[in-house]
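[audit] Reproducing an earlier prediction to check determinism. Same input, same settings, fresh worker. If the tokens differ from the archived copy the diff job will pick it up downstream; this log only records the rerun itself.
[audit] input (179 residues):
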Amino acid sequence: MAKILTGVQSTGTPHLGNLLGAIIPSIEMANKSSEESYFFIANLHALTQIKDPKVLRKNIFSTAAAWLAFGLDTDKACFFKQSDVSEVTELAWYLSCFFPYQRLTLAHSFKDKSDNLKDINAGLFSYPMLMAADILLYDANIFEAILEFLRTVFFCLIESSSISLANSFSYFFSVFLVL
């Protein structure tokens, strides 16, 4: 059975791009489908930019309110905060131990800010590993085609010159991840 997965960062009040690009299409997909749906507030990703706990909490509530206001049916879909699932950070750690430093320096999240190194923290540098863990942890095979996810799927999971990140992890730990 297929699983639907979408996450939206809680870096502010959701804007039109969040609504039209992820939230509304995801809700519509879940409402029309019999597939399992997982929608999460990506509050761990938000930590790469926002450090004030009051702002983070307000943004989490604003993001949740947007999902619910646009019709998310929590009886049909699993709706949660990313940080409530500790396995995502654990998997991100394991994946980061298998991913070459040089490849991480090519990640768009790092390259976009590499001109100003004072803006870069370790979380931003390893951002692709957390996103890969988000995707792999739920064995999802349908995720809303937002650019951020597509870049990460291509960057982390698709084979380039050697074995992909997910295949390396699966081989070493004998854990099979849906690709």
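[audit] rerun output stored. Observation attached for the diff report: The mean pLDDT is 80.
[audit] end
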